[in-house]
Amino acid sequence: MSVARVREIANRMKARGFRVVFEPGWERRGNGMSPAYTGDIVHHTATGFANSNLSILIHGRSDLPGPLCNFTTWADGTLGVIAAFPANHAGASGGRNTRPLPVTRSFNKYVLGNEIAYPGTEPMTDAQYHTATTLSAVINEVLGHKDDAHTKAHAETSVTGKWDPGRGNGVTYDMNAFRSIVRKAMHGNGRTPFGGSAAPKRSSLALLEDAAMELKPTPHGTISLGVPERGLSLQIQVAGAAGTPPPKLTIHRIAFMTGDGKKRPLKMTGPKTVPAGDPWQGDWLNAQPGETSVLIEYSFAGRGAKNHTATASFRRDY
Ligand SMILES: [Zn+2]
């Protein structure tokens, strides 16, 4: 379901601290193809750094109907969400480094496109590079990839001589360097979150507000929550209507992650049941310098889930 996937990608970017703007109609917009997303393509718009081409990305040009991308990245690093369904950005594939993506004339149905708003004849901003590499990492996570091989430059897949994303006139960015950053930005540095083959299955997530995330009432799930600033303390809370039986929320494992993929599992004596009401918090849940996200593996049981919410968030006063 492409709307849910694109929403999850956007929410994960928000959880990592990026500003995300949903362009109205994004969840219905597409070129008419049925999505079969398996990778992502990085582009430059060949315009200025201002996002004045937004209308063209949404509606297209006289020679090419819109949408022309799924995401766009602005000079300040803001991510724009343009279209949940396939867009006209990649043309046919088969260029010098297409694999493992398919070689096909109908390439757009397989790839999400990020149009980075800059000329290409000079480098993109640092903020754009940071957003673009993180977006590719998050796309790979949501598509279930364990490596960076499904992230490509348009220059690598094009059969018509495209050279984007450029860092100078006709000069494409070093995509192996780009992908090495993508790989490091993926949770667990390409490993399963907690190691081993019994890693929990991924749960979709909903973002309530910046730096707070709902633990969905699934029997068994994992969420990743971005650490918005240094030195914050994690808290987990179950809240809901008084007089109704709360669900049983059990925290199985917690691990803090650094930006380069190192994980620090917290030592727990066993699964921790979080009672309804008071938040579960403590000094031992503090993020340490350099840690940018936390992975929480949890389970839900009981019938009270629909009357209650469970949230993970960070507090400042520890
Ligand atoms: Zn392109």
Automatic annotation (TrEMBL):
Coiled coil, from the record: none
A Pfam family matched in the record: Amidase_2
InterPro entries membership: Amidase/PGRP_sf, Amidase_domain
Annotated N-acetylmuramoyl-L-alanine amidase domain residues: 41-167
GO BP term, pick one: peptidoglycan catabolic process
A single GO molecular function term of this UniProt record: N-acetylmuramoyl-L-alanine amidase activity
Protein name: N-acetylmuramoyl-L-alanine amidase domain-containing protein
Higher taxonomy: Bacteria, Bacillati, Actinomycetota, Actinomycetes, Pseudonocardiales
